[in-house]
Task: inverse folding
C-alpha cells in the first residue's frame, strides 16, 4: 500500500474581498474618512477532500479563480483552512510563480545561501550542495553575477535548481514544470521523476492541459471551490473541455 | 513502559522545537547578512554611512545644546552619544519592522517559513551597525580620557535591550497588516519618544516628565547604560528590575500577538 503523503480532509476556505456596491451617502462619507472598503465573503474552497500518495504526480486543474492556487497554499501551510485539516508527511517545497525571495542586487552566490536557508537548509548542508546547485543550473560562469543581470530563463533555471536541492518530498508547483531550454527541460523533468521514484510526490497546478496530460498520474478538477472530479488525466481533462486544447491529442 | 513512551514523545517535541528554533535563527542570520550586503551595495562610503547618521546627529545636538542643557550634566558628550546610539538602534529596528511584512508579501505568499525571521533578521542587521557605533563610542571614551571598562557590562544590557526591541518590532510588524496607517502613526510615535526620553537633556527636576518616563522602557535601558559606562556606578536595583520586566513583558506580548495574527498574514497582504 502506498503511503499517503498529503491528506486533505474536508477543507473549506473563505476570503473577504473588496467589491463595489451602491453605498449610502453616510457609508460613502464614513468610507471616505476611514478608508475602509465594503467587503464581501466568497467561498474559495468548499469541503475539498483529497489524498495524494507517494510516487504520484497529482495535477490540479480548473478555471481562473476556482481555488487551485489557494488549495496549493493550504497544502504548503501558507494559508490556514477555516475548517477541515491538511496533513503532510514529508518536507514541502513550494514553487509558486517561481518566487523564492531572490534579491536582485545580490550575487548568485549570496542568493544560494539566502534561498536555501529559506527552505530550511543549514549552512553546512548548503556548502555541501553548493557546487551541485551551480552545476545543475548550468550557471557556473555567473556565480559572482548579480541576479538583476540574469535573463528570465537563467533565473528560472537557478530557482528550479535551488528548489530541487532542498530535499523536497512533497513538491508543490504552480504553473511550473518545464523550465529553460529543451536540454534543461529534460533534465528538470528527470529530476522531478527522481523525487517521485524515491517516494515523494508532486502537486502540479496548471492551465496547460498538454503538460498535465503528459506528466500527471491523476488529476483533480476544481470548479468554484468544489472538487468536482478526480481520476485519470484523459478522463478529467475531457470534463474540462472549455480550457482544453483539442490540438494536443 | 508508558513513562518511556511519554519521555520519547517529549523528546521528539523538544527536538522539533530545537529544529524550528535553529531554522528561524539560521534564516534570520542569512537575511541579516544579505540585507547588510545590500545596504552597502554600490555605495562608495559603505559602512561609513551607518556611522554618519549618529555622528552627525551627535555633532549637531552637541553644538546646539552643550552650552545650555549640557551644562549641568557631567561628561555631556558621552551622555549624549549613548542616548543617540541606543535610540538609533531602537528607531531603525522599529521603522524597518513596520514595513517588512508588506515589502515581503510575495515571499510570504509563496513559501511557508518562520515569518519571525524577517523581524529577527532586522534586529541582527542593526546589531551589526550598532556594534560599529559602539566602536566609535569607545574611541570617544578613550579620546576623552574616560574609563572604558564599563563597556563590557553594556553587552548584558544590550541583550535585554534587544529582547525589548524584538518584542516591540513584532508588535508593530503584525499590526501593520491590520492597520494600514500604523507606519504614519509610528513615525509620529518615535518622534514623541525621542523628545520624551532624556537623550539630550537631564530628567532631574522635571517631575511630570519623570513620572511619564517610568512607563517608557527606553528610559531604563539608556539610564542603566549611562550609569555603568559613563559614570562607573551600579545602577539602582529598581531601574535594573524595571528594565528586565519591560523587556520580558514586551517580548512576551510581541510573541503572543505575532503568533496570533501571523496565521492570517498571508491572506491580508
Result:
Amino acid at each position: 500500500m502506498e503511503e499517503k503523503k498529503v491528506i486533505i480532509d474536508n477543507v473549506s476556505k473563505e476570503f473577504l474581498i473588496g467589491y463595489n456596491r451602491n453605498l449610502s451617502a453616510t457609508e460613502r462619507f464614513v468610507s471616505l474618512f476611514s478608508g475602509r472598503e465594503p467587503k464581501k465573503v466568497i467561498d474559495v474552497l468548499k469541503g475539498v477532500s483529497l489524498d495524494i500518495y507517494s510516487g504520484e504526480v497529482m495535477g490540479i486543474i480548473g478555471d481562473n479563480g476556482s481555488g487551485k492556487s489557494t488549495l496549493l497554499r493550504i497544502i504548503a501551510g501558507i494559508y490556514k483552512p477555516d475548517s477541515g485539516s491538511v496533513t503532510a508527511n514529508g518536507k514541502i517545497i513550494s514553487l509558486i510563480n517561481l518566487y523564492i525571495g531572490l534579491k536582485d542586487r545580490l550575487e548568485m552566490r549570496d542568493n544560494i545561501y539566502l534561498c536555501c536557508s529559506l527552505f530550511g537548509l543549514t549552512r553546512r548542508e548548503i556548502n555541501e550542495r553548493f557546487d551541485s546547485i551551480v552545476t545543475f543550473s548550468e550557471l557556473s560562469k555567473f556565480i559572482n553575477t548579480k541576479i538583476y543581470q540574469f535573463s528570465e530563463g537563467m533565473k528560472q533555471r537557478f530557482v528550479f535548481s535551488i528548489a530541487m536541492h532542498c530535499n523536497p518530498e512533497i513538491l508543490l508547483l504552480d504553473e511550473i514544470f518545464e523550465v529553460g531550454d529543451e536540454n534543461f527541460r529534460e533534465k528538470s523533468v528527470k529530476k522531478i521523476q527522481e523525487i517521485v521514484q524515491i517516494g515523494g510526490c508532486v502537486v502540479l497546478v496548471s492551465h496547460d492541459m498538454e503538460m498535465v496530460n503528459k506528466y500527471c498520474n491523476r488529476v483533480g478538477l476544481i470548479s468554484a471551490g468544489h472538487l468536482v472530479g478526480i481520476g485519470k488525466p484523459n478522463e478529467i481533462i475531457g470534463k474540462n473541455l472549455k480550457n482544453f486544447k483539442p490540438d494536443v491529442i | 513502559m508508558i513513562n518511556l513512551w511519554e519521555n520519547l514523545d517529549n523528546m521528539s517535541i523538544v527536538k522539533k522545537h530545537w529544529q524550528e528554533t535553529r531554522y528561524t535563527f539560521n534564516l534570520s542570520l542569512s537575511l541579516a547578512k544579505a540585507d547588510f550586503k545590500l545596504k552597502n551595495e554600490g555605495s562608495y562610503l559603505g559602512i561609513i554611512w551607518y556611522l554618519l547618521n549618529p555622528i552627525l546627529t551627535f555633532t549637531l545636538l552637541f553644538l546646539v545644546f552643550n552650552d545650555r542643557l549640557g551644562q549641568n550634566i557631567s561628561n555631556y558628550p558621552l551622555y549624549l552619544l549613548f542616548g543617540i546610539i541606543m535610540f538609533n538602534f531602537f528607531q531603525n529596528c522599529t521603522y524597518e519592522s513596520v514595513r517588512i511584512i508588506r515589502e515581503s508579501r510575495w515571499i510570504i505568499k509563496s513559501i511557508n517559513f518562520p515569518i519571525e525571521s524577517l523581524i529577527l533578521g532586522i534586529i541582527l542587521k542593526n546589531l551589526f551597525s550598532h556594534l560599529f557605533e559602539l566602536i566609535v563610542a569607545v574611541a570617544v571614551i578613550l579620546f576623552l580620557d574616560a574609563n572604558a571598562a564599563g563597556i563590557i557590562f553594556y553587552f548584558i544590557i544590550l541583550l535585554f535591550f534587544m529582547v525589548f526591541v524584538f518584542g516591540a518590532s513584532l508588535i508593530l510588524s503584525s499590526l501593520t497588516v491590520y492597520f494600514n496607517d500604523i507606519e504614519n502613526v509610528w513615525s509620529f510615535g518615535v518622534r514623541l519618544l525621542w523628545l520624551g526620553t532624556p537623550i539630550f537633556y537631564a530628567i532631574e527636576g522635571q517631575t511630570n516628565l519623570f513620572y511619564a518616563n517610568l512607563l517608557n522602557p527606553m528610559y531604563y535601558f539608556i539610564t542603566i547604560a549611562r550609569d555603568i559606562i559613563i559614570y562607573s556606578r551600579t545602577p539602582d536595583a529598581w531601574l535594573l528590575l524595571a528594565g528586565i520586566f519591560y523587556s520580558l513583558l514586551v517580548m512576551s506580548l510581541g510573541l503572543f500577538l505575532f503568533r496570533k495574527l501571523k496565521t492570517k498574514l498571508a491572506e491580508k497582504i
